[in-house]
Amino acid sequence: MASFTTAFVNLKESENYGCVQSEVIKYLNDPIQDISAQTTTDVIKVSGSIGNSILVNPKQKGNPLLTYISNVPWEFDDSIIPDYVMGRTTCALFLSLRFHNLKPEYINERLRDLGRLYDLRVLVVQVIFFR
């Protein structure tokens, strides 16, 4: 089995590397979006309902990742924008590379939908490869 380094040695030379890098830079350089139009009750609801559990977007039903979340309680919540909310300022988005190859703009749209609500955003990437 190839090591991680061997598997990704040519990543920077791939055709999509520059595209993704430029999109990330463009996103980070965007002026701060005006979130004053959002109601404060939405933010309070999200921050107040978290407690000690991970909030999971119902779109993630059937995701095998949920079977591996065993040391922390989790619950479905249809009021959240990201796939997972792990705290008042932390969220995660799930992305399958297979899906990303079909719809490369999907993750950019999801990040745009988040606005500036979360300080820490984790991208959980599912990589499936066949031998």
Outline of the structure:
The protein contains five helices and five strands, in the order αααββββααβ.
Describe the structure using short key phrases:
alpha/beta, 5-stranded mixed beta sheet, 18% strand, Rossmann fold, 5 helices, globular, ERCC1-like_central_dom, ERCC1-like central domain-containing protein, single-stranded DNA binding
Give an account of the 3D structure.
This is ERCC1-like central domain-containing protein. The protein has 131 residues and is an alpha/beta fold. The chain has a domain at 49-131: Rossmann fold (3-Layer(aba) Sandwich), CATH 3.40.50.10130. Helices cover 31% and strands 18% of the residues. A five-stranded mixed β-sheet has the order 2-1-3-4-5. The longest helix is centred in the first third of the chain and has 13 residues, at 17-29. It is globular and about 45 Å long. Residues 31-49 have low confidence and may be disordered.
Question: SSE layout and pairings?
Answer:
Layout: H1 4-7, H2 17-29, H3 40-48, E1 54-56, E2 74-76, E3 84-87, E4 90-96, H4 97-102, H5 106-114, E5 120-126
Parallel strand pairs: 1-2, 4-5
Antiparallel strand pairs: 1-3, 3-4
- Predict the CATH topology of the domain at 49-131: Rossmann fold
Q: Which stretches are poorly predicted, pLDDT < 50 over at least 5 residues?
A: 31-49
How would a textbook summarize the main sheet? 5 strands, mixed
In DSSP terms (H or I, runs of 4 or more residues), the helix count works out at 5
- Rough outline: globular
Percent in strands: 15-25%
- Distance N terminus to C terminus? 10 Å
Mean pLDDT: 79
Topology order in helix (H) and strand (E) letters: HHHEEEEHHE
**Share of helix among residues?**
25-40%
- Total count of strands: 5
Q: Give the C-level CATH assignment of the domain at 49-131.
A: Alpha Beta
Structural class computed from helices and strand pairing: alpha/beta
The assigned CATH architecture of the domain at 49-131 is 3-Layer(aba) Sandwich
Order of strands, main sheet, comes to: 2-1-3-4-5
* Rounded Rg: 17 Å
Organism: Clastoptera arizonana (Arizona spittle bug)
Domain ERCC1-like central: 53-127
Protein name: ERCC1-like central domain-containing protein
Keywords: DNA damage, DNA repair, DNA-binding, Nucleus
